[in-house]
Amino acid sequence: MIPRRYQLRKEAVSIVERHHPWVFREQMSSAANVFADGQWLRLVDGGNRVVGHGIYESDGAIAIRMLRTGDARPDAAWLRETLRAAIAKRAELAKTTDAIRLVHGESDGIPAVVVDRFADTLVVASYSAGSDALARYVARALVAEARSAGGDVEHAKIIGPATHVLLRPARRRRGPPQPARVLRGSPPDIVRFTEDGLPFAVDLAGGHKTGTYLDLRGLRRMLAGASSTASAAAASPVSSPASPEAPSSPAAPIDLSGARVLNLFAYTGMLARAAEAAGAADITNVDQSDRALEFAAAHHVADASKHHFVTADVFDWLPALDNAEQYDLVIVDPPSMTSRKAQVPGVLAAYRKLYRAALVHVKPGGLLVAACCTSRVEREVFKKTVRETLGKGWKLERDISPEADHPAGFPQADYLKILVWRAPG
């Protein structure tokens, strides 16, 4: 696409030169209103110096998603090199699983585009309508990289055979949703993959986002007790740069042998599958989606006698649960609650209500997993909210770092927080 010229305000020039991937609408002049959604722009300063290139969005708080800083134009060679750099970072992870996020949006230099590999199937998704075309280019480039006889053999192994490629366009703010498009092969409704030898399945036909949540891998590994290097890093005690709090003593080992587990917002039961593999004896899965729980029962259960499935709204079901129901592990992983800053106070109030209801069901010395994927809630704010709600005696044992294939390349990309707390006693 031939980029059109747009002169940035001084404030926006400074943002671009600091390599932040977004220019917000409040930093734009009215001259941008002539551009169509998805228009590529050549961005210049007041002296007509090219400072970068980006993609214009006609709606929402983000007006420009940066492609490349400097005067060099983003082209096919740039895209190939950017993808190769991202793929190379997944080499270690590819040794333990064939389910990998190959591209993670802005954090990998490809704005608003994610690509998840599930065995021989690639699911390409954009989360901005203006990046739908870029998502198609990325899909073609990845297939070419996987198929190229003269390409990097190791990169081809990480990408996989790419037998099937499915594109999920971004949701439109206006108009009907766009259906998924098959770009290659015949993607099956269900794809199977392994993670540290543990089998899982993905509901491509009706699953959320790309089908499942690869970003929860670190938690699954912690629960399953995987011994790989990647697992040890993901489940380490509180010590990540994002978390200044340090434990007073090493975290106690996770032992789920014979444990009773409450898995809230269970979705397709992958966390329950990990807990069962670690020896959990009784697992209650609660979710409001019948389809998700049916999928869990069909694909993520080894011993049906250990699992119970409850279709309910957790926010209603949990407060009504008898306090006598006690668990060794309670997992609380609600969906994202807002994308708007103004709604954050209400979201924090909902979290407090949720954790007040959950804590009474954790046995003395038991564990509570608190997860938050609402990007507008900052890590330290979430941690403080949960700590204050749980009260004295609760110990933060683990602050699970983002997965290697979900890098947080800038502050707003640090969306997923997974905290593991131990109850007093």
Features:
7-stranded mixed β-sheet; 11 helices; 26% strand; Archaeosine Trna-guanine Transglycosylase, Chain: A, domain 4; 3 domains; globular; Rossmann fold; Transcription Regulator spoIIAA; 26% helix; 5-stranded mixed β-sheet; 19 strands; alpha/beta; 425 residues
Can you give me a brief rundown of this structure?
This protein has helices at 10-17, 76-88, 132-147, 153-159, 217-224, 229-234, 270-277, 290-299, 314-320, 344-359, 379-390; strands spanning 4-7, 22-24, 40-44, 50-56, 62-69, 99-104, 113-118, 121-126, 164-168, 181-184, 190-195, 198-203, 260-264, 282-287, 307-311, 327-332, 362-372, 395-400, 417-422. The protein is an alpha/beta fold and 425 residues long. Residues 226-244 and 246-250 have low confidence and may be disordered.
Biggest beta sheet attributes: 7 strands, mixed
Distance between the termini: 63 Å
Which whole number gives the mean pLDDT?
91
CATH class type of the largest domain: Alpha Beta
Number of strands: 19
Uncertain runs are 226-244, 246-250
Number of domains: 3
Shape: globular
Architecture (CATH level 2) name of the largest domain:
3-Layer(aba) Sandwich
Task: Assign the structural class, choosing from mainly alpha, mainly beta, alpha/beta, alpha+beta, or little secondary structure.
Answer: alpha/beta
Overview of the molecule:
The protein contains eleven helices and 19 strands. It is α/β, with parallel strands linked by helices. It has three domains: 66 residues, Archaeosine Trna-guanine Transglycosylase, Chain: A, domain 4 (Roll), CATH 2.30.130.10; 128 residues, Transcription Regulator spoIIAA (2-Layer Sandwich); 209 residues, Rossmann fold (3-Layer(aba) Sandwich), CATH 3.40.50. A seven-stranded mixed sheet has the order 15-14-13-16-17-19-18, with helices on both faces. A five-stranded mixed sheet has the order 1-3-4-5-2, covered by helices on one side. Strands 6-7-8-9-10 form a five-stranded mixed sheet. 43% of the residues are buried.
